[in-house]
Amino acid sequence: MSNAQDSRFRQGLWPYAMILAAAFILASNHIIGRWVQGDMPPMGIGFWRLFIATAVLMPFAGRSVWAKRGLLRQHWKLFVVMAVALGPFGNAAVYVAYHFTTAINGGVVSTAQPVATVLITFFLFKESITRVQTLGIVLATVGVFVIISRGDLAILAALKPNIGDLIMLAAMFGFAVHNSLLRKIPSSFTTAEILLSVQCFSMLVMLPLYVTETIVFKPMPVTWEAAAVMAWVGIGVAIIAVGFTNTSILALGANKATISNYIRAIITAGLAILILGERLDLFHLVAFAFVVAGVVMLGRGRRVRAA
């Protein structure tokens, strides 16, 4: 993308449209994670998700990535860090967490990602946030807490951390690291090339974990249901959702793009109502109001750097 095209892109609504689409797909990924826990091994889901995404992208971006192998060797440490953050942490750890924790606990812990993103971008790139953005984060977080507590503060007060919560926290930190480091990738890489490069590195990192899990825990089931799940997470999540997220982050900055977390929480609640038969209550509407207010404030803030 040229500088002129990039400037026009940032001035439009396309980054926010991509955030919305990515949030919907990622929300479905969380529904799937809760649905298949116990039936499909987490490292297996993570590995085959990367394998499918790599196989689909290879015909479109493989040749151009190979032509940039010199840049890959030059920045291999960056790609390895991003691969570890995205693969075993950001992706597989979410599925591992749902073996030990509840949806309520997982929802609370996942709200730590925007905070982690803000801290990482501050320490690495001296990027701060405005007062308006800070207020937006607070309001949106309150909205998410209203949803996951179902409007009952006693539920939040009774929360006790367990190993699943800690794993989910690691997953959110992994996503935050990956998203924050996107700006370090040379500008000559397209979105598809970034996806393919990071996924190839991540697949290599995931391979020994997947083999160990297959031997010690359980192999991936060979069923039509497993194939359908892997097709969706491999193409819809790993390519479309991550690609949209990466593009919006590069256009808006990692801090502002964290609005995706709160939009995803709202959509997840909606999918739970439609798919799992949960009813729409007053606290859902209250939460939605808080999240929308927070999203608007985050969107109005500017990318600034700390002095």
Describe what this molecule looks like in 3D.
With 307 residues, this protein is mainly α. It has one domain (15-300). The protein is 79% helix and 1% strand. The chain is built from 14 helices and 2 strands; from the N terminus they run H-H-H-H-H-H-H-E-H-H-H-H-H-H-H-E. The chain has helices at residues 3-11, 14-36, 42-67, 69-74, 76-97, 103-110, 112-125, 131-149, 153-157, 163-181, 191-216, 224-252, 259-276, 282-300, and strands at residues 127-128, 304-305. Strands 1-2 form a two-stranded antiparallel sheet. Helix 3 crosses helix 12, helix 7 (112-125) crosses helix 10 (163-181) and helix 13 (259-276) packs antiparallel against helix 14. It starts with a helix and ends with a strand.
Please estimate the helix content. Answer: over 70%
Number of domain units: 1
* Multimeric state: single chain
Q: What is the alpha-carbon Rg in Å?
A: 19 Å
Q: What is the arithmetic mean of pLDDT?
A: 81
Distance between the termini: 30 Å
- What is the overall silhouette? globular
How much strand?
A: under 5%
- The unreliable regions are 303-307
**How many helical stretches?**
14
